[in-house]
Structure formats: C-alpha cells, structure tokens
Specification:
By secondary structure, the chain is an alpha/beta fold. The protein contains 3 helices and 7 strands; from the N terminus they run αββββαβαββ.
C-alpha cells in the first residue's frame, strides 16, 4: 500500500491581502465623500456632547456670517427651507467659539420660528 504524498497546506494570505486592500479603498472613498468643515472655524468645547451625525449643518462664524457647505446663506430660515422636507425637523448649528451667545440664541429662535422642531449645536469634545 502506497502512501499518498502530503499536500502542503495553503495559507490564506491572498484572501487576507484582498480584504485589507478593500478596507483601505473603502476608508479612502468614505473620507473623500464627507463635506469639509470650514477651516477658519473654532468650535465650542464641551466635556461630553451628545454626538449625532452632522449632515447638513449651518455654520455660524464669529462675526455672525452664516454658511452652508462653504456658501454664504442670507438667513437661518433660508438655510432651513433649502433642506429636504425630512431633515427640516432637526436643524444643526456649528457655531464659532467666539460667536456671542445672544447671536446664537437669535439664530436658534429664527430656526424654530421657521419650522425646526429641535436645534442641535455641534461642539468640540475636550481632550484631556
């Protein structure tokens, strides 16, 4: 009786390399799809903010200017009316750290008068 020659076991390195490559491509594409945040904006700091995806966010600069996706906006109500109907219930603000609080409150009130049920303010998580 002859013995069968032993086959060398194949290592699944090719499959592992393929998976790592696909993950790399995914993260490269996902990083490019996200809308860039305004470069001159310094966010308000908070210890542990309730994190929600930003989606379409209204940026409020220190001098009170409003912008959405890098373009100037005339008013908070105009920003809200430009959103799709399903996203108008929750308005998202990203204020500059140096924005006066009275201006921030006025913008939030304008958004609620325009039909927003809630106003979410994006802040920067403090790192210790």
């Amino acid at each position: 009786m002859r013995r069968q020659p032993r086959r060398a076991e194949r290592e699944p390195t090719v499959a592992l390399i393929n998976i790592v490559f696909l993950m790399l491509v995914f993260f490269l594409v996902a990083g490019q799809i996200a809308a860039p945040v305004e470069t001159d904006l310094r966010l308000v700091r908070a210890d542990d903010p309730d994190t929600t995806p930003l989606g379409d966010v209204l940026v409020v600069h220190a001098d009170g200017r409003l912008s959405h996706r890098g373009r100037g906006v005339d008013s908070a109500a105009a920003y809200l009316s430009a959103l799709p109907e399903v996203e108008r219930a929750r308005a998202r603000l990203m204020p500059d750290r140096d924005l006066p609080a009275a201006r921030l409150v006025a913008i939030a009130r304008e958004l609620t008068r325009a039909g927003a049920e809630s106003v979410v303010i994006a802040t920067e998580r403090e790192t210790r």
